[in-house]
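Structure in, sequence out. Go:
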């Protein structure tokens, strides 16, 4: 499934770090950056998390919440957050329901081996809960700054 800009973002409710339950409904009224990543504590995912963390205050100034989402467990997320000092929530979708709804749980191929995994994707959601922007097959370098620029431009 491909998300359409301007359409309603798929509803979700997931357990997140700090004992939180994060849902689209609970975030309504704020802008939201949902960044989907494959695995805690891997090189690309760590760089991406650190880039969003470095700009957290800038995102907060635009009333934008950052939420990382992966199929890793909450225990894994807690270790990852503690190790890198991440101050935004990480949601766990072990059942892959949200990942499928957002179209990021896809077949991948590495060294001729096919497997299912998360395609690194970021979705910017507006205050009304609609998809404002989608970045597919994200390249980490400079990405968080690009998302911030879009969040600033979004009213």
């Amino acid at each position: 499934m491909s998300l359409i800009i301007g359409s309603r973002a798929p509803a979700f409710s997931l357990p997140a770090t700090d004992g939180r339950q994060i849902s689209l409904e609970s975030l309504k009224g704020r802008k939201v950056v949902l960044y989907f990543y494959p695995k805690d504590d891997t090189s690309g995912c760590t760089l991406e998390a650190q880039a969003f963390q470095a700009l957290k205050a800038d995102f907060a100034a635009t009333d934008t919440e950052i939420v990382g989402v992966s199929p890793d467990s909450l225990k894994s997320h807690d270790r990852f957050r503690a190790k890198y000092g991440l101050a935004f929530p990480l949601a766990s979708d072990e059942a892959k329901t949200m990942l499928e709804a957002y179209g990021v749980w896809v077949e991948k191929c590495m060294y001729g081996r096919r497997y299912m995994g998360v395609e690194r994707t970021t979705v910017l959601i507006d205050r009304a809960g609609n998809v404002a922007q989608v970045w597919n097959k994200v390249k980490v370098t400079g990405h968080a700054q690009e998302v911030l620029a879009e969040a600033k431009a979004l009213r």
